[in-house]
Amino acid sequence: xxxxxxxxxxxxxxxxxxxxxxxxxxxxxxxxxxxxxxxxxxxxxxxxxxxxxxxxxxxxxxxxxxxxxxxxxxxxxxxxxxxxxxxxxxxxxxxxxxxxxxxxxxxxxxxxxxxxxxxxxxxxxxxxxxxxxxxxxxxxxxxxxxxxxxxxxxxxxxxxxxxxxxxxxxxxxxxxxxxxxxxxxxxxxxxxxxxxxxxxxxxxxxxxxxxxxxxxxxxxxxxxxxxxxxxxxxxxxxxxxxxxxxxxxxxxxxxxxxxxxxxxxxxxxxxxxxxxxxxxxxxxxxxxxxxxxxxxxxxxxxxxxxxxxxxxxxxxxxxxxxxxxxxxxxxxxxxxxxxxxxxxxxxxxxxxxxxxxxxxxxxxxxxxxxxxxxxxxxxxxxxxxxxx
Length: 388
Ligand code: NAD
Ligand code: MG
Hints:
Elements: E1 2-7, H1 12-23, E2 28-35, H2 39-48, E3 53-56, H3 62-69, E4 75-78, H4 80-88, E5 93-96, H5 102-113, E6 116-119, H6 123-139, E7 142-145, H7 148-156, E8 165-172, H8 182-186, H9 190-193, H10 203-211, H11 213-226, E9 233-237, E10 243-249, E11 254-258, H12 264-272, E12 295-296, H13 304-314, H14 318-334, H15 342-352, H16 354-357, H17 365-386
Parallel strand pairs: 1-2, 1-5, 2-3, 3-4, 5-6, 6-7, 8-9
Antiparallel strand pairs: 8-10, 9-12, 10-11
The protein binds nicotinamide-adenine-dinucleotide and magnesium ion.
């Protein structure tokens, strides 16, 4: 039996992970499951998986979790330190599926102490790619991608020489605003932006998909994960989301990975790697797939992609600043304080102003945390100035 932990178990990726484990329940010994606010769901998962430990990152919710798990024998803890301590508990396989910058330290703790880190939290690579790789290397931890595009690239690269890669083509569905005008996008509400046509995901990543900030993050994630330079990473709109991404090689061949729009495919690949096992996902039915469409991404309506390339050229702390500004702007958009298109303007201005903070290598958590705080404050300063 393999020991495993699920960080962010109550979220979209977390719950998909739970369902895959339930499909083959006897193969796993579940150590920790964690969540934040949804205590009812966390308790339900802890009981269903017979976990040894349930942790909420919210200290104020400890009593609620304790009372729900009373008499089950499952240990209960709360708070950020408890979360990081659970991440440091050695297991065979742990998934980092916490949303946002908060996931970076969780990933680093797993990497320090685990055997395999399955990484859904893309912010870990965007903000701390070099640090995470170094931590995995020192501890001998295997890092496996869970983001569907990166799982596709990883699968396409299986047995290949990375030096023979000509380009990587990330597919993007185009999200809910693929055919919207700039005016319509300017007035989009959080509800419209979160309404993804193909994928069922958490609210934040769904809105990031609508703005293409998610794809922008994934470009940086590709560079950090595989060491492929930004100039070799293209994005193509593929509205059906059947091809999850492709790798083009020096001989002109392209290997594409296909599957249903279900994160269980990528999570299952990371869970059972290096072997393939049935996780219960639907099979593609080619008789029902009438066509696969492709079109270039419209850089005017989706400026996030160009901002990500700018951040990659700057290097160092620019990934952290890009992500922090994007997270802060998303909070302002969710509050209805700024419009949908204002997010890209504010992120761009913050990345452009990185020199005010001082860029350097992102080689310590201290530097990353300070630049994250600076970028969030900078966005708020710009927002207040524009409202004077
Ligand atoms: P989600 O919002 O559905 O779930 C997030 C999880 O993190 C929940 O368990 C929540 O309780 C927990 N959490 C939230 N804030 C926390 C904090 N401050 N400290 C500790 N835990 C906290 O998010 P999601 O859509 O499952 O995405 C998780 C991560 O995976 C993100 O980084 C996202 O970009 C990435 N990802 C998601 C998908 C997807 O299909 N949803 C696909 C690829 C990558
Ligand atoms: Mg993705």
